[in-house]
Write the structure tokens for this entry.
Amino acid sequence: MTLRSRTEDGLLVMLLRLSELLPPAYAHFRPLLADALLFFLDHLSPRRQRDIFAAQLALPANTSRPLRLLTLFRLCPTLHKLGQVVAHDRRLSGDLRQRLQELETLVPTDSLVAVRPLLEREMGGVAGLRIARKALAEASVAIVVPFVWQQAANGPPLQGVFKVLRPGVRDRLEEELAIWPALGTFLEERCVAHGLPVFDYANTLESVAHLLANEVRLDGEQAHLRQAAEFHADSPDIVIPRVFPFSTPTVTAMERVDGCKVTTQDLPATEMRRRAERMIRALLAQPFWSSGESGAIFHADPHAGNLLATPDGRLAILDWALTTTLAKRQCESVVQLVLGALTLNDRRVRAAIGALGQSLDDVQVEAAVVEAIGQVRAGGFPGFEWMTSLLDSLAATSAVRFPEEVSLFRKALLTLSGVAADVSPDMRIDRVLIREGASQFIRSLWWRPWTWADWRPRGGAHLSNADLFGLGAELPASTLRFWIGGRG
């Protein structure tokens, strides 16, 4: 614990009361959130604490709690990222969601002054380059600065942007990420003290911290951008910014894409639904169903600030610093999980879960699967929401420990589903996934007679011939399970 003045103590109490912003349905978690915030702030350096208190003290006395929370998050890159993740979570109040959505694209400050010497030093040898005098936007870790590049003397000038790390953000991020593993252990201990279920906070926060460490690796993002451009090369309605050849490990130079946030309600409802479906297809359905031996690469930070609707109706996907990769066998296990639910086969569902993570409590796993299968028997469809609900309940109760890539995939899905719902409440994720999977399956029909029975190649909807024969053979048993379960 650090020594604070009476004023700072009062401000700290005010910050801890921000936990009351949790929805009433989660009121029992408010003391735990206050404990977490106190632990986080107490483990920051005295200088960082003074900056945070000074920012709060500068606000008017009648400042709303959502605005105080926003002010805190802007000074802490890990909290900033957390705010972006939950900004479209409909379990939060509309006022709080609206405030958090301001974190998706910040109004630029005078921080360009601090990074301009770096830009001039790194880009001094690029002929025909004119750097703007004002930044375009700020994100959680970076500043975006426009430029014009006259590549050829008689050619049209190219519009681009530089992405440069915000001054001091690398040190702030490293300091905060060092706190997260200890925070996870602390939260598990406090769950016991508050009589709350003990979740697997330690591993979850450690995996997210590992991912966030990549935010400051601009050369890594450049590689991801090139990968994404290659993957979406045959999708004319998807835009991935082109990386310019004079990018460096500390500065990313890329094509400038103009547009509005996808959540901007600027089109009729039918067109907004198509926009949302385009998002799900590009960010979820296509990579999932097309995964080859190298796996499926997913954008791990699909908040609305990274998704633009261009004036010509395309979807631009920005900021590829954070990605996660599911191995092909993991995608196949997801399909097996759904097939097990469709056939009411709890043994198949448990096997698929075992392939996705490590079971730590078989009794809890069996109980969760029986409950989930019961939902299907009662008429529920085992689609996206059903699957994520099952996986989340298993992770939350520490019944299953999922590897980092699966945990990050679930986090990305949470963000993406919230953004998609804000774009169009009429959009159905399952409909997009099924349509894309059916398209892949139909294209695979011509080669199926000549393949091994258990081969699940790329482009075959992760289904082998043996899977198809097994579904047909299992139909009588599935019918029997339905009637026995329905009566028992």
Q: What stands out?
A: The two ends are 57 Å apart (CA to CA). Residues 169-194 form the longest helix (26 residues).
